[in-house]
Every structure is written in C-alpha cells, then in structure tokens.
Amino acid sequence: MIPDGPRLSRRSVVAVAAVVVSAGCSGGGGTAGSDGAGHKATQPEPGELALRQAVRDSAALLARYDAVAAAYPALAARLAPLRAEVALHVGAFGGRAAPVPTGSPSPGATSAAPPASSPSAALKSLADEERRLADSRATALLNVPGETARLFASVAAAGAGHVALLGTKGAVR
After folding, report:
1. How many Cα atoms occupy the beta-carbon half-sphere of 121 within 13 Å?
2. Sign of the CA dihedral 53, 148, 87, 95?
3. pLDDT (tens digit, 9 = 90+) per residue, 45-67?
4. Contacts of 4 (CB under 8 A, 6+ apart)
5. Can you give the pTM of this predicted structure?
6. Phi and psi at residue 115, in whole multiples of 5°?
C-alpha cells in the first residue's frame, strides 16, 4: 500500500521521463567558429553556460535555506540535510558552496528581511523554489551534452524529492 503523503505532480513525472529518455543521449561536440580573420572565436563548451547558471541558481537556493534557518532557528536542524544536498549540488555544477553558517552574524553584516511571515510559509517558499529549479533543470537537460544532462537530471530529481519532503509535516528531520 502506498502511504498517504505528497504526490508528485504530472510535471515532475514528465521531467523524470525526459531524464530517462535523454540520459542515453549525448550531444555532439561543436567546433569553434572563426571571426572571419582566421582567428578562432572563443565559445564556451556545450553546456558551460547552463552549468554557470546552475551554480548561480543553486547558490541562491543555498542562501535561501540559510535565511530560513536564521529567521526560524527551530527549522535549522530539519533543513540541514536538504541544505547539505544543495551545497553538494553547487559543487557538482562546478561552484563553491558557502560553509554552513554558525553562530550569530558579524556586527557589520547586513541581514536580509525574514524569508516569510511564518515557518510554514518559509517551508512553502523553499518548496516552491525547489520546484521551480527542478522544472528549470529538467528543461535545460534537453539542451546540454550527455554527462551534463545526466547531472541536471539527477539534481532535478533531488529537487523534486526536496519538494516532497518540504511539503510533508515532520518528514525532514
């Protein structure tokens, strides 16, 4: 019997199906063009721009997790495993994740406004952002080479899992 709980949306199921189909596909390697004067034009490797965007998106999501944990300390332990996975995603995409914040901010640090009006609203906000990123990555994987597509698929699937966990009361411990 399947327990009652959050159900994956049709969009998430379609994204996973797209992942499975595209996981075996690899993009062809493009060749650098010429600027007309015989010099090779510098173009990023296929998927490089998508990876850079993924680093920025994951770093922003990581900052949102930190903001929610700072605004609602009672949620910090609950969010720690998900935050740790998002930090791993930043690294997998080629970026550097910020360390887990400890203690209180330094006196000169500016603090952002609380992420939401209540802990449940903050969790919903995180779930919405995770869903948006999972959908974005599921779309992006169709336009990047094989290994990068597999990475995007894996992280999109993890994001969909985070959405389910963030939407379940007490599921993330």
Report:
1. 6
2. negative
3. 878 999 999 999 999 999 999 99
4. none
5. 0.69
6. -70, -25
